Amino acid sequence: MAEGLATADGERIDIDTVEQEFARAMAAPLGTDPEAPSPPDVGLVDPEAPYGYTVDGRPKKGPGGRPPRDKARTTNAPKALSGSQKPSDGPKGKTQPATAATYAAGLSEFLAGIELALAVLPIPKDDVRVHARYQSAVLEQTGDGLAKGVGMWAEHNGMVRWCLEMLTKGGGAWVFPAAMAIAPFAVSTAMLWKAPVTDEMRAGADKIEADTMARLKAEMGLDELAEEQVPQAA
């Protein structure tokens, strides 16, 4: 028995009859009933209630909703970098270190100042003076290689690079003038405390004390005060 269609109640449906009714419906003329009118265009926002209506039909006075707890977070615009602060085109925008030759040049200037100071500065103790002179000669012969090696180290090591930049900041030309300015005080002090106390030194110390006291009294006006008090006592 061929299978057919049936309703939910079990009543059989004749397929031929269904096809004939479908064909008659498709061939029927169009209806004459008027189409339903389109709804009026009120726009996206009702001018009488721009924020919508409440449940009871009244226009809302505001957009509603819970106000934010915190104010909007704002940040200041980043300051423009200038000079050496600007990142280079290297990876991750990090400033690239200088080359080994650059560090070596700065260190060479610094070592040249040290070499000159060791060669000419007066040193009271003869043994120290002899070692200093020979150390100056060693720097003269090996200073270029030393500067080159430390420069390569600084190029690849951040701590060495930082120390070298602090050491050579402004160049090494300041070393010799600074040493020459300090040398008289340092040498005189060393010779003074090394020398034994003699009668001549005691007399000199008494004179220094008397001259200093006289100068202080003159600056403070104590001499004039003493002269005014002498006639009153008489």
List the topology elements.
Elements: E1 5-6, E2 12-13, H1 15-27, H2 100-120, H3 126-156, H4 158-168, H5 175-194, H6 199-220, H7 222-233
Antiparallel strand pairs: 1-2
What's a quick, concise take on this entry?
The protein has 234 residues and is mainly α. The chain has seven helices and two strands; from the N terminus they run E-E-H-H-H-H-H-H-H.
Could you please describe the fold and organization of this structure?
This protein is mainly alpha-helical and 234 residues long. The protein has seven helices and two strands. Strands 1-2 form a two-stranded antiparallel sheet. α2 runs antiparallel to α3 (126-156) and α3 packs across α4 (158-168). The longest helix is centred in the middle third of the chain and has 31 residues, at 126-156. The chain starts with a strand and ends with a helix. 6% of the residues are buried.
* Rg over C-alpha atoms, rounded to the nearest angstrom: 52 Å
Overall 3D form: elongated
Strand content: under 5%
Order of the strands making up the biggest sheet: 1-2
Round the mean pLDDT to the nearest integer and report it: 75
Q: Tell me about the biggest sheet? A: 2 strands, antiparallel
Low-confidence stretches: 87-91
